[in-house]
Amino acid sequence: MNESFFYRGGTLWCEGVPLDAIAESVGTPVYVYSVARVLRNIRKLQTAFGPLGASIHYSLKANANLALLGVINEAGVGVDAVSGAEIARARLAGIPPSRIVFAGVGKTRAELEYALDVGIGWINVESQAEMALLETLAADRRQIVTVALRLNPGVQPATHRHIATGHAGAKFGIEPGALADILEHREAYPHLFIAGIHVHIGSQLMRIDATLDAVRLAQQLADPHSDVRTLNIGGGFPVRYGGNENVPEPGEFAEALKPVLDGWHIMIEPGRAIVADAGLLLASVLYVKEQYERRFVIIDASMTELLRPALYGAEHPIIPVREPVDEMVPAMVVGPVCESTDVLSASALLPPLGAGDRVAVLDVGAYGMVMASNYNMRLRPPEVLVEGRQWRVVRRRETLDDLLRLEQ
Ligand code: LLP
User: Fold this and answer.
1) Is pTM, for the whole model, over 0.90?
2) What is the pLDDT of residues 260-272, one digit of tens each?
3) 173 touches ligand 1 (CB under 6 Å)
4) Radius of gyration of the chain (CA)
5) Beta sheet of 5-8, edge-to-edge order
6) Could you read off the pLDDT of 87-109 as tens digits, one per residue?
7) Residues 338, 377, 400, 406: which is the catalytic one?
């Protein structure tokens, strides 16, 4: 919990709104986001990286809700998009193409054409073949396109293996030798201005050393080429899932990088650090059953609303909406989906709850709703944005008609 989510008068609030009011009006499950927390997270990154002159591009894959993107845009932050549709979404939210960075290991020709046609500011390229295609498309349009080469530095960051991207077994980026080769033969790409190197090595990075190694390697590769002086160090700034992990703050990353970044233009692409702890998933208890000495709390949210526990073994705290006074008991919080991995928490501590009681799954603002699915024909939940005492539904709950429409 944080200053945006707290108990008052025995019940859980988001900013100036009791969560019960939202649940009673729109039902559960529902995602709830705090604007104040998003802005506070952005300020924190700006304070840490501002002195390095860094430009911030929010990685919108973390949470692409249009209203939320509007808030982030107004805070003066650009975005990192990974598909043509993400670019289109960012533009719908009012973000100018010049402040959009386009990344991705498998951009299609159509996506690259679209990016060039709308004037995307910067493209992170991930292979020699992509360079060649992009050169052709830029030449056709008589355009000079600014690109960064994404380096795969072959480092192993401290994080879950599913979200490490800069190691030898990962599909991402270009290995150092091949990258040096592209730089050396830049004249083969007269319509591409290679302005920088991109080194996103993974997400939820629990230590800084691998980032430093990657940055140093990128600098060595860029060194002989005096016009390659931008380093995009990607995202990956970790958040405190569960509140008590010892995770490095953005300021610690910035401090550690500062001595090596003098003379370089810096870009960062945080996703999670901006939105994760600004969102919770509000759900209701359907049934409680005790068996084999376990307490199962079955709620109306599941792995289709929040995939992270099933996919990464992620631990999201689950708390009751009514402030607990009774003794807390261990519980497995599970959803209705027909999968054994549909466990939102195997180790929750909750007061004795009954049907209709509400719970909140915390720190789900990043990679929550964007990874939701319709498995088991479940309707994706609505999203609510809270700003002070105001709240509004910024995406409505899906209906059966929404789901069937494409098959009619
Ligand atoms: N830049 C690039 C090139 C990326 O691939 C990513 C994330 C980011 C920036 C933002 O990373 P962040 O600051 O959010 O860590 N679904 C997973 C995370 C996948 C991240 C993919 N790339 C999860 O729920 O943990």
Assistant:
1) yes
2) 998 999 999 999 9
3) no
4) 22
5) 5-8, 11-14, 17-18
6) 999 999 999 999 999 999 999 99
7) 338
